[in-house]
Amino acid sequence: MNRFLGYVFVAALSFATPALAEEMREVPVYFSAGADNAVLSDRIKGYDSVIYTIGAEAGQTIDIKLSTKHTATYFNLYGPGSGPGDQAIMNSQFTPELNHYTGTLPSSGTYKISVYMMRSAARRDEVANFDIRIGITGETGAIVQGDYADGLQGGPDFWQVQTGDINDPLNLRARPSTGATILGRFPEGAILRNMGCRMAEGQRWCQVAATEGYLTGWVAGRYLREGSAPPPRVAEPETRDQQVQFAPGTSGAVLRSTLDPGAAVNYRLGARAKQFLTAQLQTGSPAVHFNIFTPDGQLLYESRGGRRDYRGQLWLNGENRITVYNIGDAPAPFTMIVGIE
User: Fold this and answer.
1) Which residues contact 13 (CB under 8 A, 6 or more apart)?
2) What is the CA 185 to chain-centroid distance, rounded?
3) 3-state SS class at 173
4) What digits encode the pLDDT tens for the residues 100-124?
């Protein structure tokens, strides 16, 4: 290498050294339905930094533009599986246009964009206000290319829904977009079959299929955790249905019966979306349990292995079904208390 060029290269590396972050906030970036970019406003002070995470696929184009009046604030772009402390794809100090980068992404996964202040300014505890525009353009191929760590087309056979709120079901959509038609909803803890994931609107979307029924579609991947195959269910015997009627002026009913071994009874009661359903099973037999099904046939709650009471908000209009069943080898009396609020 030419000695002069070598000196310039080493000097540039020294000058480009960012401050070591004291606080490193991570902010996921999602696009609005149908959009291909997002603009975020933020600030850093001293040795703090912000890391923006965004999902994209190999071959797509990323465009990042940082706007700030602070002349010692820049950003680094890191590939899937790497971040501050690792080798960056690029440093915005050395782009043809300062703090503006456009490039083709080499692999599929989650990219990180770290906004930081140079050490010379950080040690003076300076403050930088900034706007950052992050865009992803380019169509994805028929299959995922350059999939980092088998993160999209691989993964577990089953997912478990984890929204963090039993009253906040996960939307199932016709396409991987927040603007797509909602086909159904899955409650907290539901087990779904994994049919592969893609990146869209800056985030991971997974195609799933219900383990009961025929619903298939796309859900936001950030609400999924690795799950296991659902246990085999006791086959529901042919049994009687009972329509539940509340007495005038009341919002509940007390239902008493006795189930023979292997028998079941389906209590059916209509309700509106956003009403609350309560169900409480009282029995001296550990072999008597109940399931709750939504009007579209999805499992809402299963008492087996858990509590024998339930209260939750409904998200569909129509007739809900509470199935009480006996898996023991002796007749079992029970009382089921139900209500709609």
Assistant:
1) none
2) 13
3) strand
4) 999 999 999 999 999 999 999 999 9
